[in-house]
Amino acid sequence: MPNADVDSHAALPTIAVLATGGTIAGSGSQGRATNYRPGQIGIEDLVGCVPGIDAVAHVKGMQICNVNSDDITGAHWIALARTIDELAARTDIDGFVVTHGTDTMDETAYFLNLTVKTDKPVVLTGSMRPATATSADGPMNLFQALSLAASPDARGRGVMVAFSDAIFGGRDVRKVSTFQTDAFSENDFGCMGYLIDGQPYFFNGSTKLHTLGTEFNASEIDGLPRVDAVYFTVDADPGVIDYCVESGARGIIVVGAGSGGYSTPWNDRISAFAGRGIPIVRCSRVGAGLITHDDFYRGDLVRGCDLPPQKAAVLLRLALTKTSDTTLIQRMFDVY
Ligand code: ASP
């Protein structure tokens, strides 16, 4: 893998930048924010576009992959977590920035938050506009992410996302706009803090376990089991659940209405899977709030807590590397 060293002052922290692609590495028609190809620009050029970074950190670049983040896979996640763990064991690396497409950044952030075994800062960032757009947001986001990863104050807070002057927690961050540069939020929980001129200001943090506090370690995971999400709408055919199970899904996320609700035909179909070793997690399509126990829903179900479906899928896939016992999986959904 190509290595880019941009050295400056000896006393500065050294940050490893692990590049995976996305719009921040995208290129297209000059001046336009749409119609571009993500994952075109390499790590050297990405870092080279950030004015002022020489005064913040030594940067060591590594290209992990260069893809549209819709093509990120569980194998990428495992490779990324293992790379971070290996580099974190070195005394000459002080923190990490992962550049990533925004589409699935919230999933990768949660996976890393649950698996990396370090308290050194790990910060994801990306951009909504390609490098060739007018007012590209990538260089500023990368500057802020590097500044955050270089800050001693960022240690031990779990994996974070730096985006559009804000700091978000890896567990709760979600993409909330398809095109605006202010594209991330923690919804009900706001954000962890702000970034101004490269200085982090922290206000909030999740109470859920992360990084060194979890039972997941990427060095022990060879692959992630398949989990499918099924989305309930009025009159939707519950046969989609049978399809998922029959075609090999090891777990199902049901994206219900309201507080994770679905119709009586869905309830009948879902209860038929009770005790068959295919955990089913109830989540909501609402985007805010919490799933609690409800006696109406039959079957051996796991409550997805406040996790959106895509994050519940990350946790269920990790959980299934340990167990398919729904009591144990429910505990994981309660603490992570
Ligand atoms: N499709 C792009 C990606 O996720 C979008 C982005 O990065 O903003 O890679």
Automatic annotation (TrEMBL):
Domain L-asparaginase N-terminal: 15-203
Any single GO BP term: asparagine metabolic process
Similarity annotation: Belongs to the asparaginase 1 family.
EC top class named in words: hydrolase
EC number: 3.5.1.1
Pfam families listed in its UniProt record: Asparaginase, Asparaginase_C
Record's protein name: asparaginase
NCBIfam families assigned to the protein according to its UniProt record, in alphabetical order: asnASE_II
Catalytic reactions of this protein: L-asparagine + H2O = L-aspartate + NH4(+)
Active site: 23, 102
